[in-house]
Amino acid sequence: xNLLIVVRKFVLFGLLVAVVLAKPRVAVGEEKGFEPLLGDNxxxxxxxxxxxxxxxxxxxxxxxxxRVAGGGDIMTVEEYADFELRLDWKISPGGNSxxxxxxxxxxxxxxxxxxxxxxxxxxxxxxxxxxxxxxGSLYDLYARSEAATTKVGDWNEARIVVRGNxxxxxxxxxxxxxxxxGSDDWNSRLAKSKFATWPKFAKNxxxxxxxxxxxxxVWYRNIxxxxxxEKK
Length: 232
Description:
This protein is α+β, with helices and mostly antiparallel strands and 232 residues long. It has one domain: Jelly Rolls (Sandwich), CATH 2.60.120.560. Helices cover 14% and strands 32% of the residues. It contains 3 helices and 13 strands; from the N terminus they run H-E-H-E-E-E-E-E-E-E-E-E-E-H-E-E. A hairpin with a 2-residue loop joins strand 3 and strand 4. The termini are far apart.
């Protein structure tokens, strides 16, 4: 092969690689259909559970929402029915928190009505010894299918997809929970759980989303949500 042709192909390949590497990452909030929940208007999008206004103990700085002191759970002002929620979370050593969705107000705790995506340090917290209550699980009902957390102190990427009665939990790019409210499997698990006698649990077709104050340091960032239309 002609040496000049080889050189030209090599240069062209190098330019192509440079263009790909230089391509900017899609910014949070620019993903099609997603609404950012930690932008400049975050104080208008969140409130304390059973409280008015921004709760004490939660701080927002440089796009990172942190639970730094006791103040109770924080929740979205708006309610969501079918949605895809994406966010990053980071937990302190031995820490525990959760993302609770389709919650209603008026109860002592958000988890009396909503389902929980567990946020946890699996290694140092006792809940990590039980797969039903480990990070990424649908708390006390569906264990995550595999371990996928990063080391404590690093960020984890979470996705929660809720469409009608179908639920998916994702952890660092892996689908770790898939279930359906009202299915035989769901009903069997529910009957054996602590939620069996809770009249409001998992009954809402829409509700707020709450981040749990469980008494530990926890950080959230890049929170965004996409409203979905239920497939007929």
